[in-house]
């Protein structure tokens, strides 16, 4: 989704877990991670010894308007100083490290983070370098390990993507999963009187067009047609539109007949009084709807 869905008049969420990027290599990736943070209500960023220094203009470009997070970012010379004031640390890694630590998915990490944040604890989410990820000694500083159910043959995620997945689970939980908008219910559902009038109109014109080629099959076919429209959940506006479609088709047929008759110097053809021969295999079908 693009910036078209952004509403600058709404307040930004504050608090939540601290996102810690350990020795990020490219400003573009920092900016992408910050954009994901802004999308999913994470506002606190810490950078550990970014390779290209700080501030980084490329990070601003790729943050796509999440400048307030960049402006509030804290820079630390090493990971120990970046996590010193935190109570609970989650380390994101795609590799098994041989450590006796709980391994959680992003949804379980979100549950843990919400619970601990509500209790007044400060939670940190560690993400490593783009090329190598976190070192084992850095993972050892964490309380739990975060990993994702990705393709084991290609498990490396872009830094911004990794932050987005965790941020999504966090925000979905804290917001109750509420979507930002719903399709407005502008038209009431058609009542049975509306539907019956439409069925009368449709079936009359189908009769006029010689659609029902078998009187024996006609009741079943009518039932099938009605069932199609019953499954849709038509609104009053839908029914009005369908009436208009049928009327336009009928008027178009009559106009074509009149033009043909005028061209041939004949009167417009009248409805046939005899039933046409039924083609092989039946006419309109006899399967139950």
From TrEMBL:
<dbReference type="Pfam" id="PF00588">
    <property type="entry name" value="SpoU_methylase"/>
</dbReference>
<dbReference type="InterPro" id="IPR001537">
    <property type="entry name" value="SpoU_MeTrfase"/>
</dbReference>
<keyword id="KW-0819">tRNA processing</keyword>
<feature type="compositionally biased region" description="Gly residues">
    <location>
        <begin position="280"/>
        <end position="289"/>
    </location>
</feature>
<comment type="subunit">
    <text>Homodimer.</text>
</comment>
<dbReference type="GO" id="GO:0002128">
    <property type="term" value="P:tRNA nucleoside ribose methylation"/>
</dbReference>
<dbReference type="GO" id="GO:0005829">
    <property type="term" value="C:cytosol"/>
</dbReference>
<dbReference type="GO" id="GO:0160206">
    <property type="term" value="F:tRNA (cytidine(32)/uridine(32)-2'-O)-methyltransferase activity"/>
</dbReference>
<comment type="similarity">
    <text>Belongs to the class IV-like SAM-binding methyltransferase superfamily. RNA methyltransferase TrmH family.</text>
</comment>
<feature type="region of interest" description="Disordered">
    <location>
        <begin position="261"/>
        <end position="289"/>
    </location>
</feature>
<keyword id="KW-0808">Transferase</keyword>
<keyword id="KW-0949">S-adenosyl-L-methionine</keyword>
<dbReference type="InterPro" id="IPR004384">
    <property type="entry name" value="RNA_MeTrfase_TrmJ/LasT"/>
</dbReference>
<keyword id="KW-0963">Cytoplasm</keyword>
<protein>
    <recommendedName>
        <fullName>tRNA (cytidine/uridine-2'-O-)-methyltransferase TrmJ</fullName>
        <ecNumber>2.1.1.200</ecNumber>
    </recommendedName>
</protein>
<dbReference type="InterPro" id="IPR029028">
    <property type="entry name" value="Alpha/beta_knot_MTases"/>
</dbReference>
<keyword id="KW-0489">Methyltransferase</keyword>
<dbReference type="GO" id="GO:0003723">
    <property type="term" value="F:RNA binding"/>
</dbReference>
<dbReference type="InterPro" id="IPR029026">
    <property type="entry name" value="tRNA_m1G_MTases_N"/>
</dbReference>
<feature type="domain" description="tRNA/rRNA methyltransferase SpoU type">
    <location>
        <begin position="18"/>
        <end position="168"/>
    </location>
</feature>
<comment type="function">
    <text>Catalyzes the formation of 2'O-methylated cytidine (Cm32) or 2'O-methylated uridine (Um32) at position 32 in tRNA.</text>
</comment>
């Amino acid at each position: 989704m693009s910036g078209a869905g952004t509403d600058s008049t709404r307040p930004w969420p504050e608090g939540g877990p601290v996102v810690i990027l350990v020795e990020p290599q490219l400003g573009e990736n920092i900016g992408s991670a910050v954009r994901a943070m802004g999308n999913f209500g994470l506002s606190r960023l810490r950078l550990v010894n970014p390779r290209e220094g700080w501030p980084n203009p490329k990070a601003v470009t790729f943050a796509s308007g999440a400048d307030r997070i960049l402006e509030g970012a804290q820079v630390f010379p090493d990971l120990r100083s970046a996590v010193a004031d935190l109570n609970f640390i989650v380390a994101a890694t795609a590799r098994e490290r041989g450590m006796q630590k709980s391994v959680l998915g992003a949804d379980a990490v979100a549950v843990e983070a919400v619970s601990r944040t509500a209790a007044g604890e400060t939670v940190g989410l560690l993400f490593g370098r783009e090329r190598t990820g976190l070192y084992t000694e850095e993972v050892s500083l964490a309380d739990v390990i975060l990993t994702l159910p990705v393709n084991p043959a290609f498990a490396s995620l872009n830094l911004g993507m990794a932050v987005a997945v965790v941020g999504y689970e966090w925000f979905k939980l804290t917001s109750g999963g509420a979507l930002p908008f719903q399709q407005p219910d502008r038209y009431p559902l058609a009542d049975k009187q509306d539907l019956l009038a439409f069925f009368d109109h449709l079936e009359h014109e189908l009769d006029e067009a010689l659609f029902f080629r078998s009187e024996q099959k006609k009741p079943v076919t009518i039932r099938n047609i009605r069932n199609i429209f019953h499954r849709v959940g038509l609104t009053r506006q839908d029914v009005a539109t369908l009436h208009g479609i049928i009327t336009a088709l009928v008027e178009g047929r009559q106009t074509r007949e009149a033009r043909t008759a005028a061209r041939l110097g004949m009167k417009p053809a009248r409805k046939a009084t005899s039933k046409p021969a039924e083609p092989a295999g039946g006419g309109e079908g006899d399967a139950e709807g």
